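Re: that backbone. Tokens:
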């Protein structure tokens, strides 16, 4: 596989991966949004639980009344921290079944399509009185002390939010038999969690359409990508086979053609005095056709070289002189068909080029102008940062759709209106390869029926 195709495959795979990542991120975001919406919907239901039934109110009251009494005892140092917390746990545990049955009544009345469980966890209890701030309980992750609700695994829970409850408590205390008022502030922090076993199933069902469409599009893109690359590799293989075949066949044809040419020469020589007109004419035809075939094969062989295979013999050439010589030679062989206007705007410019290759490249373009209907050629030679050579003709022009392809090996425009113009589609390919071998560039501008302008840019080195 050529380097270009490997790079293309790598770039496409990277593109595909990037696309998949973006897609995955979008799906994840949608999942997250839907999950939040589900939590919002359910936290609304759970938020109202307290106001649904008197049972739940009474349970909360019962817990807080008992706990505050214990807290009074703690503030008077009659109860230790551990005992206080143990007693809170015992009260909660004893009232929890009541809470759960009241909660289930509320939830069942809602006819939800899934199990919605709930628990309230204690995060901290802080007691503040005139003497000190006393942290009675603190559990940063709030995983250890369940106040009320169901037991469920931490993994499945969804956090609803934190609530802080701050209150001032006054109570009667007896000091040395005298009744006095005691007072403290207490701050409770709790965290509410809910659990929906089927949360994922619910969300994924909601997202079913999106997931299926994404998968289908993704599979389609992969299929398309696989098909395109496979096609590209097949095309490249066919092109390589074609090029190899042409190179081989032209080489193979050369030997019999040379033998044929020698044989004709010998026949001519040995039959110098024969006056059979038919014989002489046939021999002449064989010779001419042989020469024609040889020329065609040489053209294919010489003009098929890629720019990497061209070995340049560069020399410093006086540009003005070089160009005038090329144009003079061309004019001599096309005297009656073409007029060349020369606009040579530089003097004494030397350039390191391969004389043979550049002149052939220029002649290919000039010959094309004549072949494709031009009566006038305007030739420009100027110097910018580089050397620019332009060959502008007033021929039949090239349609936009063909402009990209005319430098491709064996490409010929389908000029149905000029049937007699023959060629192999190698001239411009060759010119382009020669210019590339000189580190230059070739541009073409053309308008159908108006003319064509080829510009060769060569670096000054
Ligand atoms: P070859 O040069 O190998 O004998 P060719 O002239 O057909 O054959 P190229 O010189 O590579 O091949 O040109 C490719 C095609 O570009 C031509 O078939 C022709 O249609 C078009 N073309 C090239 N030069 C011109 C031009 N000056 N005006 C109009 N069409 C052109
Ligand atoms: Mg040509």
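Recovered sequence:
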């Amino acid at each position: 596989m050529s380097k270009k195709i490997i790079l293309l495959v790598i770039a496409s795979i990277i593109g595909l991966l990037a696309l998949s990542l973006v897609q995955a991120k979008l799906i994840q975001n949608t999942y997250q949004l839907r999950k939040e919406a589900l939590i919002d919907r359910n936290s609304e239901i759970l938020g109202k639980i307290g106001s649904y039934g008197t049972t739940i109110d009474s349970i909360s009251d019962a817990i807080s009344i008992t706990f505050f009494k214990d807290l009074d005892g703690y503030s008077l140092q009659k109860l230790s921290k551990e005992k206080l917390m143990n007693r809170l746990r015992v009260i909660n545990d004893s009232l929890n079944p009541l809470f759960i049955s009241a909660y289930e009544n509320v939830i069942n009345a809602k006819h939800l399509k899934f199990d919605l469980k709930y628990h309230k966890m204690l995060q901290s209890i802080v007691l503040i009185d005139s003497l000190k701030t006393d942290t009675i309980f603190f559990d940063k992750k709030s995983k250890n002390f369940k106040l009320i609700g169901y037991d469920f695994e931490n993994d499945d829970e969804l956090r609803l939010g934190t609530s802080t409850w701050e209150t001032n408590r006054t109570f009667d205390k007896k000091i040395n038999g005298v009744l006095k008022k005691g007072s403290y502030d207490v701050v409770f922090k709790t965290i509410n969690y809910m659990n929906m076993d089927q949360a994922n199933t619910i969300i994924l069902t909601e997202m079913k359409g999106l997931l299926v469409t994404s998968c289908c599009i993704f599979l389609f893109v992969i299929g398309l990508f696989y098909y395109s690359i496979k096609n590209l590799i097949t095309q490249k293989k066919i092109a390589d086979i074609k090029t190899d075949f042409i190179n081989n066949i032209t080489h193979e044809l050369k030997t019999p053609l040379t033998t044929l040419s020698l044989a004709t020469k010998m026949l001519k020589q040995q039959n110098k005095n024969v006056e059979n007109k038919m014989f002489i004419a046939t021999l002449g035809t064989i010779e001419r056709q042989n020469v024609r075939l040889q020329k065609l094969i040489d053209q294919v062989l010489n003009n098929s070289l890629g720019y990497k295979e061209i070995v340049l013999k560069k020399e410093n050439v006086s540009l003005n002189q070089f160009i005038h010589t090329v144009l003079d030679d061309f004019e001599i062989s096309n005297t009656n068909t073409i007029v060349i206007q020369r606009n040579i705007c530089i003097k004494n410019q030397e350039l390191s080029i391969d004389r043979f290759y550049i002149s052939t490249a220029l002649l290919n373009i000039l010959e094309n102008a004549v072949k494709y209907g031009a009566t006038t050629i305007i030739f420009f030679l100027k110097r910018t940062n580089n050397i620019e050579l332009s060959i502008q003709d007033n021929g039949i022009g090239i349609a936009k759709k063909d402009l990209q392809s005319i430098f491709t090996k064996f490409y010929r425009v389908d000029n149905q209106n000029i049937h007699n113009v023959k060629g192999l589609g190698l001239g411009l390919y060759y010119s382009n390869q020669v210019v590339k071998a000189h580190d230059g560039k070739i541009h073409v501008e053309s308008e159908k029926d108006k003319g064509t302008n080829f510009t060769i840019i060569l670096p000054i080195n």
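The pocket of adenosine-5'-triphosphate (ligand 1) is lined by residues 364, 368-369, 371-372, 393, 395-398, 406, 411-413, 415, 423-429, 452 (CB under 6 Å). The mean pLDDT is 87.
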